[in-house]
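WARN retry 2 of 3 for item q-0093 after timeout on previous attempt; input resubmitted unchanged.
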Amino acid sequence: MQVVKLAHYSIRSFDLEKSSRFYERVLGFTPGYRPPFDFPGVWLYMGGDEKDFGTVHIIGIDPSNPEGLKKYLGDKEIPLTGTGTVDHIAFLVTGLVEFWDVFKAEGIAWRDRTVPSLGLHQVFIEDPSGVTIELNFPASEIDAVGSYASHASATVGEQP
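OK item q-0093 returned
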């Protein structure tokens, strides 16, 4: 028995549209098929492949009609913002400079960190619900540009 890969992660959101837009515009995910559950939501996919049932499931919280969600997933208290019991979600990615440009255009704060012993450059952002997302780039990408400050003037990002 073994775990092969992350199937998906789910986020409960009070602003389904804003959360969905974030994952589409910032991370490039694509909305796709979602079964007709009795509560609002959207399933987002990496690319056009829908065979693995999505990467991010955003569950809409409808305070005026919470019964469908309660019946299917149970009732739980969640903070209005923040990661709650999930610390962060990580993705392996490429295109560091392009991501910086998207963050700046979207007004998203980020933190860059390099882990030299792993050959890994990490960028941390938060989605609209406050869930921390870690983007892992090959360290060679930061080596090629030096730092965000050498790429363009940082108004939102933070370089250690």
